[in-house]
Design goal:
By secondary structure, the protein is an alpha+beta fold. The protein is about 35% helix and about 25% strand. The chain is built from 13 helices and 20 strands. The strands form 5 sheets. It has a 6-stranded mixed beta sheet with strand order 5-6-8-7-9-12, with helices on both faces. It has a 4-stranded antiparallel beta sheet with strand order 2-3-1-4. It is elongated and about 90 Å long. The N terminus is likely disordered. Bound molecules: ligand BES and zinc ion (ZN).
């Protein structure tokens, strides 16, 4: 009986699919006011129990494009309880059908992922700090809600921008900028901004390595209280601490790194959809996108579960993530991190539109999907707080932060051209402000005999001699980017410093 219904439904769906495409005439019943996509299983179940509340427009292997009633959204909620994968809104029938097709932009990419930065990674693992993650998760929980339409969500975005900017200042970096991304004119619009930090690559600035998570939150018990501690303050805190770690060790990447805190993920991936499609349209050369959404509720035996839905995840990048764990946290390591794979059934987070725009994505998740469904009772609830995860702290998220650091270092690669030790000699100061190089030293000390500036390719671009003990040089004539200043003192001491010009 059930089988016959199923076949009939699929048959009807195919016909509607054609109608929807060819004539744009989708049969509409008054009560069917909402378009969207959901899992095929849920759609079939609702169609059987409440056939008047749903019209299945088209199906793929796992998903259905549907036209449903308000009532059906409640049925779906009951069916699914509090657990994903949920329901994705669409503006109309065609949009819904397109979404389940996962039409992917073709992109040729010859990126070879390799592991070569062991020394840098070890240095980073020595300074990464769990309590920073804990402090930031609690800071983000403190907004009460980060539901995308609320003032506190926008405040969280503005504050995060300030936090990331302060990090760049603390570590004396002027190769870093942070911007807010406006989505008010996007097809799926939100008043909330995404936040993007850019660390400009010193050698391959046009190749982008992206890491992201979503800053917004939601609660099925009402969005006034949606602390989103695990979903996804944990991910934002993981990527922030990973980035801070890179800055603390003075890591200058060859490739450009972008750190993204997306707006309005919970209502349909709005922020990341807008950003990924803009990057796609501009053919930005993004070599990898790592997604960190929920990292702190351990409910499975293994530590990391790689989401491996073939319609949203790149197997090559995912294998590379596993290789990172094998290399830096293998079974013989004293910091073992175990892993397995899982699926969420569909594009359940921000990696989805990166994938659809043709980019390589990976998504390490906190547990297996089935264990998550069974155990994570705080998901999308008003008690999604760090104190309610099994460890009560950021023990689980800390593992993801290490993986995030390894991913960023090994994909962006350390720029060797700028690896000269910094100018460090007591009594000497050398720095750049507004593209003016200033140097100062006590007159009792050895004077500057020769000063040379090299660009990132190692080419000498400036040479000055007999500069005395203090002075200024305008570097306005140089194009923006990183340079190395090399100084020889009268007493033959050599000092170098990397500087970044705007
Ligand atoms: N963090 C979840 C996604 C998630 C949940 C991944 C469980 C893996 C396991 C995300 O914030 C979310 O809730 N997504 C929605 C779908 C989205 C497209 C609106 C969901 O899964 O219901
Ligand atoms: Zn999430």
């Amino acid at each position: 009986m059930k089988k016959i219904t199923l076949i009939a439904v699929l048959f009807c769906a195919t016909i509607f699919n054609l109608n929807a495409q060819d004539n744009l005439t989708v049969p509409e019943r008054q009560n069917l006011t909402i378009y969207g996509t959901m899992s095929l299983e849920d759609a079939l179940e609702i169609n059987e129990s409440n056939p008047n509340e749903i019209e299945i427009l088209a199906t793929s292997d796992e998903e259905a494009a549907v036209n449903i009633s308000e009532e059906a959204t409640h049925l779906l909620h009951d069916l699914r309880g509090t657990h994903g994968p949920g329901y994705l809104n669409a503006s109309n029938a065609i949009d819904a059908i397109k979404q389940i097709r996962h039409v992917r932009t073709e992109r040729v990419q010859q990126m070879n992922f390799t592991i070569s930065e062991g020394e840098t990674v070890e240095m980073a693992l020595g300074v990464i700090n769990k309590s920073n993650i804990e402090a930031q998760i609690e800071e983000l929980e403190g907004y009460g809600t980060r539901y995308h339409t609320t003032a506190s969500a926008q405040r969280a975005a503005v504050d995060l921008k300030a936090k990331w900017e302060a990090m760049a200042t603390t570590y004396g970096r002027n190769d870093i900028s942070v911007r807010l991304v406006d989505h008010s004119n996007a097809s799926d619009s939100t008043p909330m901004n995404s936040v993007v930090m850019t660390i400009t690559g010193a050698e391959l600035p046009d190749e982008f390595v992206i890491i992201g998570g979503h800053l917004d939150s939601t609660s099925s018990q009402g969005n006034n209280v949606a602390p989103g501690g695990d979903d996804d303050a944990s991910g934002i805190s993981v990527i922030t601490e990973a980035t801070r770690t890179l800055l603390e060790i003075g890591f200058v990447p060859k490739r450009t790194i972008e750190v993204m805190a997306y707006a309005a993920e919970e209502v349909g991936l709005y922020g990341s959809k807008d950003i990924a499609s803009r990057y796609g349209q501009n053919n930005v050369n993004v070599v990898a996108v790592g997604q960190f959404d929920m990292a702190n509720y351990k409910s499975s035996t293994k530590d990391v579960y790689f989401v491996s839905d073939t319609n949203a995840i790149d197997p090559t990048l995912t294998s590379f993530f596993k290789e990172l764990l094998d290399t830096y946290h293998g079974s013989t390591s004293n910091d073992e991190i175990t892993y397995s794979t899982t699926t969420c059934g569909y594009g359940c987070s921000d990696h989805r539109y990166w994938f659809e725009n043709g980019y390589k994505t990976a998504f390490p998740f906190e547990s297996s999907f089935s264990d998550f469904q069974q155990n994570n009772s705080i998901y999308h609830k008003n008690n999604d707080l760090m104190k309610n995860v099994p460890s009560g702290d950021a023990t689980h998220a800390f593992k993801f932060a290490k993986l995030a650091v390894e991913y960023l270092i090994e994909v962006s690669k350390k720029s060797s051209l700028l690896s000269t030790p910094n100018f460090e000699e007591e009594g000497y100061e050398l720095f750049v402000i507004d593209n003016i190089l200033k140097f100062k030293s006590d007159r009792s000390r050895s004077a500057i005999k020769e000063l040379k500036i090299y660009d990132v390719t190692g080419k000498e671009v400036l040479k000055k001699t007999s500069l005395g003990n203090s002075g200024k040089l305008s570097l306005n004539a140089f194009t923006a980017g990183a340079y190395v200043v090399n100084v020889v003192l009268d007493n033959k001491t050599q000092l170098s410093k990397k500087v970044i010009l705007k």
